């Protein structure tokens, strides 16, 4: 008889373990909690990344960020050029013991591509999928499309039988407050099993003894605890209350580096931090919206002292950005990576040109649990805008509060960080942010802009199988994004992780995604 609930599966594993206590417990102190146990519930990289320890895709990124087989062993493009055939891995089981088959893949793709799915934009070319046999699936696209494998790295596969039994075939939506069984329960094929979850308190994962892959880690358990306060997170690390954080505060790095029991891992994230604008007719206060005019957007850009933010707020750890993608991302060219320079007087002149009234009020929406030092750089930018005669109203709150405002057009100027996940390609922000909001495109086009010429370039790139030609189209589109100042790029944020001395191996990935199936601790084998 099959176990129908992953919580029962976890209990069974615990019972088998008897009184043996886990030797290697990685205590992960994060700056916030995951939004749900459903990886489709919101386009939030952190939640999706954490749940990648529980759920898996047909393909995945390897240790050196190259695409490799996962739940699919091989694939090919059929003669019509729009159908991809995937041969699935046999002998894989879900955490509840159910076998993994083609039916699970089709049900998962149907769920994530549903019109109500917040992640439907992550499969922009998807049309349908069908079962060929028990371990073969065909995926049909809307045309030639070169990036399907990149897309599929973050499309986690669910158990169809489990979803059917628990009325979970339809997606949930954290931004809209839509919940379901999958919000609080999980059943994947990945290296770890959800043992227990207390939202905003602790989520515990135990090792999956039946994982199909050969483990490279030696962890028995992961305890994910949200520690929102940076000071508390540092204190917990120094005391050993937590053994890992993927968000070591940049202002505390010297202290952590000097601590004898802590190792700091530093790099620069692929995530580009940007500021976006509304293109609707009015602001949230009902007043006319000047940000529809390019001159007003340029005025706010020139009023930001990027050097000061990099040196003071980001402690010299960030990389000032002139482009909306980082240098390692395909489609980047150095010519786009230029900044206009701080010029308050030029800003005032542009405001006058755009007819912006003195003291104009608008909401500046930022997250208290989002980007690195977000609250601090938002405060600094709001102050800079005040100096050119504007009256920004800084609205800082947790992601759970701010996300509905952003997705429903209930805010004005806002922050956004984009790491091009899962594609690791410039097509990602072009399609998801800068394309008009149509179908699977423009899911994160919260400002409501629409440039037909830009859309045409993006659409052409999405059908171009020749890599060089595709990247040329994307670079041209990025040039238009820059020329129109659709968004203001600020920086690629610093990436700083820290571990205690008991953690012997913790690879630092440039996409800022912890892959704890590569982590090792001092105890155990």
Topology:
Elements: H1 6-17, E1 25-30, H2 45-51, E2 59-61, E3 67-69, E4 72-77, E5 83-88, H3 102-112, E6 126-133, E7 136-141, H4 148-152, H5 160-165, H6 181-184, E8 192-198, E9 202-207, E10 221-226, H7 230-239, E11 244-245, H8 253-258, E12 262-276, H9 294-302, H10 306-313, E13 319-320, H11 344-353, E14 361-367, H12 374-386, E15 391-397, H13 399-407, E16 413-418, H14 427-434, H15 452-461, H16 467-483, E17 487-500, E18 503-505, E19 520-521
Parallel strand pairs: 1-10, 14-15, 14-16
Antiparallel strand pairs: 2-3, 4-5, 5-7, 6-7, 8-9, 9-10, 11-17, 12-16, 12-17, 13-17, 18-19
Helix pairs in contact: 9-11, 14-15, 15-16
Q: What does this 3D model show about the protein?
A:
- The chain is an alpha+beta fold and 525 residues long.
- It has two domains: 6-17 and 29-193, Alpha-Beta Complex (Dipeptide-binding Protein, domain 1); 270-494, Roll (Dipeptide-binding Protein, domain 3).
- The chain has 16 helices and 19 strands.
- The strands form five sheets. Strands 11, 12, 13, 14, 15, 16 and 17 form a seven-stranded mixed β-sheet that branches.
- A hairpin with a 2-residue loop joins strand 6 and strand 7 (136-141).
- It starts with 5 loop residues before the first helix and ends with a strand.
- 50% of the residues are buried.
